[in-house]
Amino acid sequence: MAEETKKEFEEVLKEQREEYQRYLSVLSEDFHSNMQLVAESVSGLQEQMEAVKELVADSAKDIAIIKGDIQFIKQELKRKVDYDEFEALERRVLLLEKV
């Protein structure tokens, strides 16, 4: 009787061990599948980050060009104002010379 109980107990343990191994195998496959999804997502995010970096670099170049253009416009505007003032003074001098 004890020998028979021992065999039954060992059989139950063997079945449970096999079932547990299948369970662990399924968990492992699921984990690997999820990790693959995470890796693909990270890869996609890295590509997006590279695209954003390129856009920022292009924007920085454009901003530098715009700054240069604004500086040029400011200088030209200042020169134009000075030229307009010069013309006004020249007219006033001509009027004074006529008198």
Helix and strand topology:
Layout: H1 2-98
Task: Describe the protein in words.
The protein has about 100 residues and is mainly α. The chain has one helix at about 1-99.
- Would you tell me the structural class of the helices and strands? mainly alpha
Tally of strands: 0
| Cα radius of gyration in angstroms | 42 Å
Q: End-to-end distance, in Å? A: 143 Å
Fraction of residues in helix: over 70%
Mean pLDDT, to the nearest integer, reads: 93
Q: Major sheet: size, sense and barrel closure?
A: none
β-strand amount: under 5%
Q: How many alpha or pi helices?
A: 1
How is this structure best summarized?
With 99 residues, the chain is mainly alpha-helical.
Which terms would index this structure?
99 residues; mainly alpha
